[in-house]
Amino acid sequence: MPLIIDQEKCTGCAVCLERCPFNALTIVDNLAKVDDVTCTLCGACAKQGVCPFDAITLLREKKEAKSGIAAHRNIWIFAEQKKGVLQGVVYELLGKARELADVRQQEVWAVLLGKTVAHKAQELIACGADKVVLVEDDCLEFFEDETYSTVITRLCRNYKPEIVLCGATTIGRALIPRVAVQLKTGLTADCTELHIDPEKQLLVQTRPAFGGNIMARILCPQHRPQMSTVRHKVFPAAQPDSSRTGEIIREAFNAREKANNARVVDVIEILEDTVNLTEANIIVSGGRGIKGPANFAMLHDLAKAVGGAVGASRAAVDEGWVQYSHQVGQTGKTVNPKVYIACGISGQIQHLVGMQSSDVIIAINKDPDAPMMKIATLALCGDLFQIIPELIKQMK
Ligand SMILES: Cc1cc2nc3c(=O)[nH]c(=O)nc-3n(C[C@H](O)[C@H](O)[C@H](O)COP(=O)(O)OP(=O)(O)OC[C@H]3O[C@@H](n4cnc5c(N)ncnc54)[C@H](O)[C@@H]3O)c2cc1C
C-alpha cells in the first residue's frame, strides 16, 4: 500500500479521519489504519498540514512505478455467465485472447464471478484460458454493476493485466466502463478487429467511427490495462480442447465490496417465441421497402418457413413497424448467420457493419444499384411484394 502511516509518529488523534472523503481511515488501538479496498489513494489525508504529526505519506513515485506499464502482463477476458451458463461471446473472446497472448508470449486469464460457478473453470481452460481467477459468493449470484466492477477493479490492481477484453453485452456495457474509470485507463467499445502492432507491441483496437464511414484504429499507449469490448459473433469461437490444463486461482469476496445502493430483488425472464437474432442461422430482415408494420407479418411467415428469425433496418425500427430488439447494424445487433435475406433494405454502411460477415446474403430490392444488391451473393431484382409470397410458397 503506497499510503504509509508512521506508527512512531501517529498518536491516534483522528484528525485525518475527517479529511478522508471515502471513509477509508479508522482508529484502531490508538493508531490510524487505512482500508485498502475503500482508499482511492487520492492523497487528501497526506497533504501537508493535515496530520499534525506528519505521520501520513503517500508514496506517489512508488505507486506509479508499481502500476507502471512494464509491470502489466497477460490477456484477461471477463467470463460472463448467467445462471451458470457461459455467454456465447466468452468463447469468442477466449479465441481472440489466445491469439493475442501467443503474439505477446503471455497467458490468457479468465475472470469468473458468481455464486457456484467453479464447475465452469475447466470449460474456460479447455477453450484457451491458462488461468481462471474465480470469485464465488452469494452476493455475486446476480450481476450487480457496482459490486462486480469493484471486485474486478481490485483483481486488476492486484494482478495487473496488460489487456482486458469483455463482451459488448448488456452486462458488459454496464460493467467494464466502471472498471476502466476506476483504473483510470482507456476503453474502446464495440471493436470489430483486435491485433498487436508488431512494432509498438500495443493492442490495435479497430472500430467503426463517424457513423460507420471510417474504421478508426485506437491505441492506449500510456495507461494499463488496454481495454476493449467486442460484440457477440464478431470473432470466431474458440474450439474446446479437453486435454488443456490450467490453474484456478480462488480469490475471496470481500463483504465491503458489496454495493449497498442497489439490490437485485428478482430476475424476470422475457420468453420470446422467436429465435434469438444473434444465434439464428437464417435471418429475414425488412427495411423501409416493407412499407408498413402489417407487412412484417409476411417476413415472419418467411422466417417461419425457413426456420429463421426476423431482423430489421433502423428505418423500419424508427418508423415503429418493429421493435428495436430486431435492429441489425451499428446501433443494433451484429449478426453472423449462414443466410441473411435483406428485403427492401438499401444497404447503408451502418446496416452493413452489422451483417456483412453473413455467409450468404440474399438481397430483394427493386433498385439494382442499391449497395445491398452489390454485396449480395444472390440479388433478386424486383418487387418484394411479389417475390416474398412466392418464396414462402416455395419454402413451404
Ligand atoms: C449513427 C447512425 C447509426 C445508424 N445505425 C443503423 C443501424 O444500426 N442499422 C440500420 O439499419 N441503419 C442504421 N442507420 C441508418 C442508415 O444510415 C440507413 O438510413 C438505414 O439503414 C436505411 O434503412 P433502409 O435500408 O431500410 O431504408 P432505405 O435506405 O430507405 O431503403 C429502402 C430500400 O427499399 C427498396 N424498396 C422500396 N420498395 C421496394 C419494393 N416494393 N420491393 C423491393 N424493394 C423496395 C428501395 O429500393 C431501397 O433500396 C444509422 C445511421 C446513423 C447516422
Q: Could you explain how this protein is built, in words?
A:
- The chain is α/β, with parallel strands linked by helices and 396 residues long.
- It folds into three domains: 64 residues, Alpha-Beta Plaits, CATH 3.30.70; 189 residues, 3-Layer(aba) Sandwich (Rossmann fold); 119 residues, Rossmann fold (3-Layer(aba) Sandwich), CATH 3.40.50.1220.
- The chain has a seven-stranded parallel β-sheet, sandwiched between helices. Strands 18-17-19-20-21 form a five-stranded parallel β-sheet. Strands 12-13-14 form a three-stranded antiparallel β-sheet.
- Helix 5 crosses helix 6 and helix 7 runs parallel beside helix 11.
- It is elongated and about 90 Å long.
- Bound molecules: flavin-adenine dinucleotide.
Brief synopsis:
This protein is an alpha/beta fold and 396 residues long.
Assembly state (oligomeric) = single chain
Q: Would you tell me which CATH topology of the largest domain applies? A: Rossmann fold
**What percentage of residues falls in helices of 4 or more residues?**
25-40%
Report the span from N to C terminus. 69 Å
Largest sheet: 7 strands, parallel
Number of domains: 3
Radius of gyration: 26 Å
Strand content: 15-25%
Q: What is the name of the CATH superfamily of the largest domain? A: HUPs
- What is the CATH first-level class name of the largest domain? Alpha Beta
Number of beta-strand segments:
21
Mean pLDDT: 92
CATH architecture of the largest domain: 3-Layer(aba) Sandwich
Helix count, DSSP H or I runs of 4 or more residues = 11
Low-confidence stretches: 62-66
Strand order of the largest sheet: 11-15-10-5-8-9-16
Structural class: alpha/beta
